[in-house]
Design brief:
Layout (H helix, E strand, L loop, with lengths): L1 H9 L6 H8 L2 H12 L6 H11 L5 H8 L9 H15 L4 H16 L3 H14 L4 H6 L1 H11 L6 E4 L8 H8 L3 E3 L2 E3 L5 H6 L15 H18 L4 E5 L2 E4 L3 H11 L2 E4 L5 H12 L37 H8 L7 H14 L2 H17 L28 H13 L2 H20 L7 H12 L11 E7 L2 E2 L2 E4 L17 E4 L7 E6 L2 E3 L1 H6 L11 H27 L5 H26 L5 H13 L4 H11 L6 H10 L9 H15 L3 H11 L4 H38 L9 H11 L3 E4 L1
Antiparallel strand pairs: 1-3, 1-4, 2-3, 4-5, 6-13, 7-8, 7-11, 9-10, 11-12
Helix pairs in contact: 2-5, 3-6, 7-8, 7-10, 11-13, 15-30, 17-20, 17-25, 18-19, 18-20, 23-24, 26-30, 27-28, 28-30, 29-30
Length: 751
């Protein structure tokens, strides 16, 4: 009753949601308010704003009724409350969107007929009665654009905004600094091109780079740029001049404004080998071709060879050669350098980065399901949960949950770095236990093979496979869950459990036959091979169809290439790379189609023979020279690498020799190539052995220098971008700046 008496006494028009709810929830109060509005000399602006929020459904009438519209006062349904709002709108003379558009069209005709007085009347009526809120104009671009034109009464250029900044008097201040006039969130200006606007933010310099503007002018231009960068840049602003609209929020114009601002970019701290990986990650997140961001020169002045990056990768991604990544992420100093290097090769082959990453994801998934605070690798699980993390864990499928885990990782650079560190640890773990044991993959393949054998000769009870994690059995007991994810219990109330072999947790396995432990080499020596069955006719047909599609794409690409002018080198280069990749894939597909049975164990067996048996670098180099004598010797590996960087997309000891020679030729004095030529001349000689030993002694320094030069090449490219952003593609500069500055913290933005 206090509210009623207060409201009646003041005869107040609704001005907030409380008084609005009071009026529209009662039929008599609605009628009174309508009469009060009709007697007003001015439009009740607060009520108008309230009714706009109702129309746009920002203000929920059901909530108003629940809170303020209950009996004895409230006698209206929600629908009746909505009708009462319409009565208030009608009393104000509130325009619908259709009515507003019709009036604007009338105004444009009056403008064309130079009826200035009528245009002013229409604009005044629109300001009073139409919903011209930011939300409405954003949703009704026809109204927004036509209204912008209508407001230009004297054809004077003006700046309009899709999302005007609402902080204090920002627009007013910006207008004053530009010597313009602010009206209804539009700034009328004296310039008509984006370049003139840019000039208003850019100190004038002479040919020597010295600023010629006075200190006062420089201060003013700096203030204009500061407001633009902080408040205006993302407002969707446009320069309207001569009936044309020029978008000043697009990437190209934002780039020009940034360049004109003379804002400095500098390398943040020390650029290290780890920074290279961040650089590659940043560039991969820039839309479009990465060509402009590829390093071109080493600090020593020599060109960066193509083998540094995989040429079969997309022109829109930057894929480091896996050997380059090995060099950057490891230290190969000291006399035992070759052990470290070949261990790295073993790690990559026995457990790829992708496979290791998958194991880490499995760990996180398992820890989340079991309400653990951290994974077995020490990753904090709370990072993935909470308000902005994963919710309703128990209701989601494994696939969905893992996808959300990956999404969270991809959204955080610091988390990506932590996960990558754990991936490297996971790979190193794998190597430690594999000399006499089976990889998890090998064990699975062997089990499959054994199951296919005759049961009389090979009873299943004779086979014993046990999985381990870092020297300890990985088997564990877990609760049996029902369809709702709850623990099940037996008749006595005890939790029902089940045995798990722990294959997902394991990093190696042991296999016993009749109690005798087997080694992988034992298995292969016994002639045990794991084969895949002959391809079905359906599979053969699919392979044939795939080749047909590839060949059609190849023909189409060649036709497109023929139409591109020879002087358009950038387009031709992209298409030529695509054609080459298609040709390689077709060749590979045709070779694979011929295969009917494959030896699954063959690759792993070869790996063990080539890697686990390597005792020292000199012996390995000499032995490889002998092995490859008929194919051109060690130097043939170098030639193969020079012909195509795609030859290095898989890690093998042989290919590593080609990479090292090619890279050291650019980062050093070709010591490796010269040594290879000497060894190839007579691999059986003492001279060959001596040369191999001398090269071995030089390798730690050569690798250290290679790492330094590789890191320096990427740092030079980053510095070049920081100092010369204008030379980079117009539509990529702002995106690159965001990645380098905001995401990866490789650059700092300052004066």
């Amino acid at each position: 009753m206090i509210i009623i008496s207060w409201f009646s006494l003041l005869k107040m028009i609704p001005s907030d949601k409380f008084t609005l709810a009071y009026v529209i929830s009662n039929s008599k109060e609605t009628a009174k308010a309508v009469e009060e509005i009709k007697n007003l000399s001015k439009t009740p602006k607060n009520l108008k704003k309230l009714l706009i929020t109702v129309e746009s459904e920002q203000l929920n009438l059901q909530e108003l009724k629940d809170q303020f519209g209950q009996p004895p006062h409230g006698d209206q349904t929600v629908e009746q409350m909505r009708e009462n709002c319409q009565k208030l709108m009608d009393a104000i003379g509130f325009m619908t969107k259709e009515d507003a558009l019709a009036l604007i069209n009338e105004g444009l005709k009056a403008k064309e007929a130079t009826n200035t007085q009528r245009v002013k009347e229409i604009l005044a009526e629109l300001d009073q009665k139409a919903d011209l809120s930011e939300r409405t104009l954003r949703r009704n671009k026809e109204i927004r654009d036509k209204l912008d034109i209508l407001r230009v009464s004297d054809e004077k250029p003006f700046l309009s905004f899709d999302n005007p900044p609402n902080e204090g008097n920002v627009l007013q201040k910006f207008a004053e600094l530009l010597d313009g006039e602010l009206k209804n969130n539009i700034i009328f200006v004296d310039f008509s091109t984006p370049n003139e606007l840019i000039a208003a933010m850019r100190p004038v310099k002479d040919k020597k780079g010295n600023i010629t503007d006075s200190d006062e002018v420089v201060a003013k231009k700096t203030e204009i740029f500061t407001i633009w960068n902080k408040h205006i840049r993302t407002s969707g602003w446009k320069l309207n001049a001569g009936g044309k609209s020029q978008d000043l929020s697009d990437l190209v114009t934002r780039k020009k404004i940034f360049v004109a601002s003379d804002k400095k970019l500098t390398v943040a701290g020390t650029f290290s080998a780890a920074s290279v990986l961040k650089y590659v990650r940043a560039v991969d997140n820039i839309k479009g071709s990465v060509r402009a961001f590829k390093p071109k020169k080493f600090p020593n002045g020599r060109s960066v060879p193509s083998v540094l990056l995989l040429d079969k990768s997309s022109p829109n991604s930057m894929n480091l050669n896996p050997y380059a990544k090995l060099i950057l992420t490891n230290d190969f100093s000291g006399k035992e350098w070759f052990n470290k290097f070949f261990d790295s090769l073993r790690i990559q082959q026995l457990l790829t980065e992708e496979e290791a990453n998958s194991l880490i994801i499995d760990e996180i998934y398992k820890a989340i399901l079991e309400n653990e605070s951290s994974t077995v690798s020490g990753i904090n699980v709370n990072t993935f949960l909470g308000k902005d993390g994963i919710t309703d864990v128990k209701t989601k499928t494994k696939k969905k949950l893992k996808a959300e885990i990956r999404s969270i990782i991809e959204g955080s650079t610091s988390l990506q770095d932590r996960i990558y560190s754990k991936v490297l640890d996971k790979q190193k773990e794998q190597l430690k236990y594999l000399e006499d044991n089976f990889t998890v993959k090998e064990a699975a393949s062997f089990i499959k093979l054994y199951e296919s054998l005759d049961r009389e000769d090979y009873p299943m009870e004779d086979l014993d496979v046990e999985y381990f994690k870092d020297g300890r059995p990985s088997a564990f007991e877990s609760s049996v869950l029902d369809d709702e994810g709850k623990e099940t219990r037996d008749e006595k109330g005890s939790i029902i459990t089940q045995s798990n072999k722990g294959t997902e947790l394991a990093n190696y396995a042991t296999i016993k036959l009749e109690g005798d432990k087997l080694t992988p080499n034992d298995a292969y020596e016994f002639g045990m091979k794991v084969t895949t069955p002959e391809f079905s006719q359906e599979s053969k047909d699919k392979r044939a169809k795939g080749i047909e599609i590839q060949e059609a794409n190849l023909i189409s690409s060649k036709k497109r290439l023929a139409k591109i002018p020879k002087d358009d080198k950038s387009k031709r280069e992209v298409l030529e790379t695509k054609i080459k990749n298609l040709e390689d894939r077709i060749k590979e597909s045709k070779e694979n189609r011929k295969k009917t049975v494959s030896d699954v164990g063959q690759d792993v067996s070869k790996l063990r023979n080539e890697l686990l048996d390597v005792k020292d670098f000199p012996s390995y180099v000499v032995s490889m020279s002998k092995k490859l004598k008929e194919e051109g010797g060690l130097i043939s590996l170098v030639s193969q690498v020079m012909r195509s960087a795609s030859a290095l997309d898989q890690i093998t000891p042989e290919r590593s020799l080609g990479f090292l020679s090619q890279m050291i030729n650019h980062t050093g004095n070709d010591e490796v190539g010269e040594a290879f030529n000497t060894i190839d001349a007579d691999p059986e000689s003492e001279s060959a052995k001596d040369t191999a030993n001398e090269l071995n002694d030089k390798m730690p320094q050569l690798l250290s220098n290679m790492k330094k030069e590789l890191t320096g090449a990427f740092e030079l490219k980053l510095k070049h971008f920081a100092e010369n952003p204008a030379s980079y593609p117009d539509n990529q500069v702002i995106l690159a700046k965001k990645q380098f500055v905001d995401k990866e913290n490789l650059l700092i933005e300052g004066e």
